[in-house]
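Ticket #4471: structure export looks truncated?
Reporter: QA, pipeline team
Priority: medium

Steps to reproduce: submit the single chain below to the structure queue and open the exported record.
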Amino acid sequence: MDRRGFIKSIFGIAAGAAAVKFLPSAKAGTVVWGTKTVKLNSSLDRVNCRRLLLYIKQKIEEGLKPFMFEPNDTITRSSMKKYVTQLLKDVQKKDAMLEKFKVICDETNNNPTVIDSNSAVMDVYLKVGKLPEDTFTVLRVVVGRASYQGGV
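Actual output as written to the record:
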């Protein structure tokens, strides 16, 4: 039996995705037993990359909540961009997986329609992992009076 057949027989899954295992003896409970989350050809299929993106999303959500009721003007957009840029620089210093990033929060994605709807839009481009091509993950953040949206 080859490695793939062994993994499939033991865990009941195809090779290439991490198994979820229950470890009662280690008092760990249910854990992901491996590094791959799904069978994709990107850095997002790795648990550590996915966790990093979820951490960044959570910190952006926490940091931008105070801007929810601020007017969408150049000062507010500049402050929002400064906060997210500094957050990503700090993450980049601590974690080598975040290779590049770009934050856009200006008139290009905050047109008069967005401003009139009492919202602000910020686009965050992240290059996570060691892929040879420039594959960016896009995180679009919309801060508005009635709701907050953020997605990975």
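Status: closed, not a bug. The export was complete when the record was re-opened. Leaving a note from the reviewer for reference: The chain is about 35% helix and 25% strand.
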